[in-house]
Design brief:
The chain has helices at 3-13, 47-56, 80-90, 100-104, 110-117, 145-154, 209-219, 252-263, 292-297, 310-316, 327-331, 334-345, and strands at 26-29, 39-42, 60-63, 94-97, 120-128, 133-141, 168-176, 193-205, 227-231, 239-251, 270-271, 277-284, 302-305, 321-324, 351-353. It has 364 residues and is α/β, with parallel strands linked by helices. It has a six-stranded mixed β-sheet, sandwiched between helices. Strands 1-4-3-2-15 form a five-stranded mixed β-sheet, sandwiched between helices. Strands 7-8-6-9 form a four-stranded antiparallel β-sheet, covered by helices on one side.
Length: 364
């Protein structure tokens, strides 16, 4: 098994096109064509994590937070990041990070996993990605319909929620006359031709547009295929944060106490009316203070994320119950997400939770 096989399994669930524009998810260090000896799963890559990978004899580290956010102008031993890169390369260890792409992955993402730990049911995305979809409509000779459709699906088109290989097809007649210099796959130069064709329509993420069009052109028999590209206003079935419900409503203080226990939170700052009955809960793993207005607009009784500031509490505390559940605490579930993805696809592959992983923040 190649390291790239493990990476592909993760990106099937959390494709890189889902990441935010400022992010640097993906391969950080190493060679994906190497044979994989095992994976160490963590939130942050530290020197201690790399040492643990060496001691375990595994050559892949999968982290949530990217090791590299900014470019390195030199690789010495002047910083922890540089030392980690040097040590990883020296020991043949590949480092891969799934960050905001796994945050935004529908149903398997970070907020979904944290939401389940927090007792939520009937969850949906709190802030869906917008403007991320396109549609391709192409006219294909009937005998080539399946070949072109398979190529489009292989390129990532036709994925809609829990369904794949989605397309709309309708039969009709295409008419054309090849002119001098043409090399028609079907028809004769200088003669008008009517050809039974199928209009094939597929939806796909805009980030995949180039690959989808190239796949269609490679599979299509015509030298001049007729096709349309449309930018859609539909929202992608993915995004940041979730909103869900409690099966049994609880007073705010009781609910926050249960969240504190289930997430292992050392101290839980909150603001707002903790006596209010909590039915609907919104949350975002990691940072997410900017989504407070979205939680209020969605009718949430409480909003929780990992990085609330003083002025977030003072600005919105009268409108909604707010709780700072900690950045690490709200994202520690990523190790479990990686583990389930890997073991589901490769049940005999050795994947370990990093024993050297710890919350960098301590509480008195």
């Amino acid at each position: 098994m190649k390291i790239g096989d493990i990476i592909s399994a993760i990106e099937e669930q959390a494709p890189l096109w889902l990441q935010e524009s400022w992010d640097n998810a993906g391969l950080q260090v190493g060679d994906p064509v190497c044979e994989a000896t095992g994976a160490l799963l963590c939130v942050d890559v530290t020197e201690a994590i790399v040492d643990e990978a060496v001691a375990r004899g595994v050559n892949l580290i999968v982290s949530h937070h990217p090791l590299l956010f900014k470019g390195l102008k030199r690789i010495t031993c002047a910083s922890a990041t540089e030392r980690i890169v040097i040590k990883a390369i020296k020991h043949g260890i590949t480092i891969y990070s799934a960050h905001t792409n796994i945050d935004s992955a529908a149903r398997v993402g970070v907020s979904w996993a944290t939401g389940r730990l927090a007792g939520l049911v009937n969850m949906r995305v709190l802030v869906p990605q917008e403007g991320g979809l396109m549609k391709l409509a192409v006219f294909v000779p009937v005998d080539y319909r399946d070949k072109v459709s398979e190529a489009l699906w292989a390129a990532g088109a036709g994925q809609m929620g829990n369904y794949d290989r989605c397309a709309y097809m309708v039969d009709g007649t295409g008419t054309y006359r090849p002119l001098d210099g043409a090399s028609p796959a079907i028809g004769t130069v200088g003669r008008s031709h009517n050809e039974p064709e199928t209009r094939v329509e597929v939806v796909f993420p805009a980030a995949l547009c180039g690959g989808v069009v190239r796949a269609m052109l490679a599979a299509h028999p015509y030298e001049e295929p007729a096709f349309d590209l449309l930018k859609l206003e539909n929202k992608v079935d993915a995004g940041l944060g979730v909103i869900g419900e409690l099966e049994v409503p609880l007073p705010g203080k009781d609910y926050l106490e249960s969240v504190k226990q289930s997430l292992g939170i050392g101290a839980l700052p909150y603001a707002g009316d903790a006596s209010r009955l909590v039915r609907k809960v919104a949350l975002c793993g990691g940072a997410g203070a900017e989504f407070i207005p979205a939680a209020i607009a969605a009718g949430a009784d409480v909003y929780m994320c990992g990085d609330l500031k003083y002025h977030d509490f003072t600005t919105y505390g009268d409108s909604i119950l707010l709780a700072n559940i900690g950045h690490y605490e709200s994202e520690q579930c990523t190790k479990g997400i990686f583990y389930e993805i890997i073991r589901k696809k490769f049940p005999n592959f050795a994947a370990y939770y990093a024993e050297q992983e710890k919350n960098p923040i301590s509480f008195l």
